[in-house]
Design a protein that fits this description.
Length: 387
C-alpha cells in the first residue's frame, strides 16, 4: 500500500543515512531494495532514495570495473550468476545463449572477472563482421608482407587474448571456413601466424555467445557439430526480460540514473503506475530496449519526472502484435485505452480466467498479481468474460 503522507523524523533520516553507507559498501540486491523502499514510502522518501541511489552510483564508479554492475544478480539472474561463479574457477569454454539484448556481453565479462584471468585481457570479436578472406589473419595474425596489404606484422585474436579471455560474440555467424580454423586451434592449442614460421602457444579462455538456435544450425549443416561440442561444454542460458519481471524496477532505476547522468538532469525514479506499465510490456528487445525506453522517458520528462507511458507509446508496434489496428487517418488512441482493449480481448479468449495455465496472465506473460492490479486501475472486470 503506498503511503504518500509519510514524513521522516531526524532519527529515521540518520538510520537511512547509515543504510546508504552500507549500500555503497555492498552491491548485492540493494538496487531492488531501494526501489521497494521508494515505492512503499512515497515522495518524501523517494527524494531520499534518489540520494541513496546517486551515492551508490558514485561509489560504484570509484571501484575498478565497478561500472559493470549487473542488476538482478541476486534476483532474476541469480542462477546465471551462480553458473558464472562456478565456471569462472575453471578454464572450460562457456557458451552464453539468449535473445537479443538479454545481457550476453555483460555476462561474458562477468565470467572473465570471476576467473583467474581477471587481470588479463578481455577481447571481444564479432564473428559476423569478418570478411571470409581475412579469417586466418584475424584469428592467427600475420607476418609483414605475407599477403598484399599486410604492411606490418599483426597479432591475431588468440595472441592478443593471451593470458585472458577471448569472447566470440555472435558465434553462430562464423562462416564455415572460419569454423574449421577455429576448431583446429582449439584442438591443438597452437597455431602459426599467416606467413610465419614459428608455432605459437597461447593460454586463452574461450567464451562464445549467440542468439541463434545453434543446435538447429548444426542440424541443417550451417554450424559444425565438432565445433559445437567443443564450445558447448558449459552453456549458460539467459532468460528473456519478460521471464524476470522482478528485475524491472531495479533495472529501470539503474537506467534512469544512467540517463540522468548522461543528460545532466536530476535522476527521477519510476512510480508504481510506471512500473505496472513496464511489467505489462513484452520487451522483445529485452534489457537493451528497456534502457532506451527509460532514456526516452528521461528526455521527455526533462528532469521533472520519468515519462514512462509516453516513452512506451513511442515504441513501434511489432508486426505480430494485435493492437495496431488504427489506420493512419484515425485519431491516435491513448496507451491506457489500447492496453485496456488488449487485456479485454485476451480475457475474452480465456473466458475471464486470469490465473493458471489457461489464464490471461500466462498469455500476456505477466505476473497474475500485476495483471489484476492493472485491471483494477483500468476498470476491467474479468467477470464480464466468464461464460
Ligand atoms: N543485468 C544487467 N544489468 C545492467 N545492465 C544490463 C544488464 N543486462 C544488460 N544490460 C545492458 O543492456 C544492454 C544490452 O546488453 P548486452 O549487450 O550484454 O546484450 P546482448 O545479449 O549481448 O545483446 P545482442 O544479442 O543484441 O548482442 C547493454 O547496454 C548492457 O550494459
Ligand atoms: Mg551482444
Amino acid at each position: 500500500m503506498e503511503n504518500d503522507d509519510i514524513s521522516l523524523d531526524s532519527g529515521e533520516i540518520s538510520e537511512l543515512d547509515a543504510l546508504a553507507a552500507l549500500c555503497v559498501e555492498d552491491d548485492a540486491g540493494v538496487d531492488d531494495f531501494l526501489v521497494e523502499l521508494g515505492r512503499n514510502l512515497g515522495p518524501g522518501s523517494r527524494r531520499l532514495l534518489q540520494r541513496l541511489a546517486a551515492e551508490r552510483q558514485a561509489g560504484r564508479q570509484k571501484r575498478p570495473g565497478g561500472n559493470q554492475a549487473i542488476v538482478g544478480a541476486e534476483a532474476g539472474l541469480r542462477e546465471v550468476m551462480a553458473a558464472v561463479r562456478q565456471v569462472g574457477r575453471s578454464d572450460a569454454p562457456v557458451l552464453i545463449l539468449g535473445e537479443t539484448g538479454t545481457g550476453k556481453e555483460v555476462v561474458a565479462r562477468a565470467v572473465h572477472q570471476h576467473s583467474r584471468r581477471a587481470g588479463g585481457p578481455f577481447l571481444r570479436v564479432n564473428c559476423g563482421a569478418i570478411p571470409a578472406e581475412l579469417i586466418d589473419s584475424e584469428l592467427f595474425g600475420h607476418e609483414r608482407g605475407s599477403f598484399t596489404g599486410a604492411v606490418a606484422t599483426r597479432k591475431g585474436w588468440f595472441e592478443r587474448a593471451d593470458g585472458g579471455t577471448l569472447f566470440l560474440d555472435e558465434i553462430g555467424e562464423l562462416p564455415l571456413a572460419a569454423q574449421v580454423r577455429l576448431l583446429r586451434v582449439l584442438q591443438d592449442g597452437s597455431f602459426q601466424r599467416v606467413g610465419g614460421e614459428h608455432v605459437l602457444n597461447v593460454d586463452v579462455r574461450l567464451v562464445a555467445a549467440t542468439n541463434r538456435d545453434l543446435r538447429q544450425a548444426v542440424g541443417v549443416g550451417a554450424f559444425r557439430e565438432d565445433l559445437w561440442f567443443r564450445i558447448a561444454v558449459f552453456p549458460i542460458p539467459l532468460p528473456p526480460l519478460r521471464e524476470r519481471l522482478q528485475d524491472i524496477p531495479a533495472l529501470a532505476a539503474h537506467f534512469s540514473l544512467r540517463a540522468a547522468e548522461r543528460l545532466g538532469l536530476p535522476p527521477r525514479m519510476p512510480d508504481a503506475a510506471d512500473l505496472d506499465l513496464l511489467a505489462a510490456y513484452p520487451w522483445p528487445g529485452n534489457v537493451r530496449e528497456l534502457a532506451s525506453v527509460i532514456e526516452r522517458a528521461a528526455i521527455l520528462g526533462d528532469g521533472h519526472r520519468l515519462e514512462v507511458a509516453r516513452a512506451l507509446g513511442a515504441v513501434p508496434t511489432p508486426a505480430r502484435a494485435t493492437v495496431g489496428e488504427t489506420s493512419p487517418a484515425a485519431p491516435v488512441e491513448d496507451l491506457e485505452t489500447v492496453i485496456r482493449r488488449h487485456i479485454e480481448s485476451v480475457l475474452a479468449s480465456c473466458h475471464g480466467r486470469v490465473e493458471g495455465p489457461h489464464g490471461a496472465a500466462r498469455l500476456l506473460r505477466v505476473n497474475p498479481h500485476t495483471l489484476r492490479s492493472k485491471m483494477r486501475k483500468l476498470g476491467v472486470d474479468a467477470g464480464r468474460f466468464r461464460a
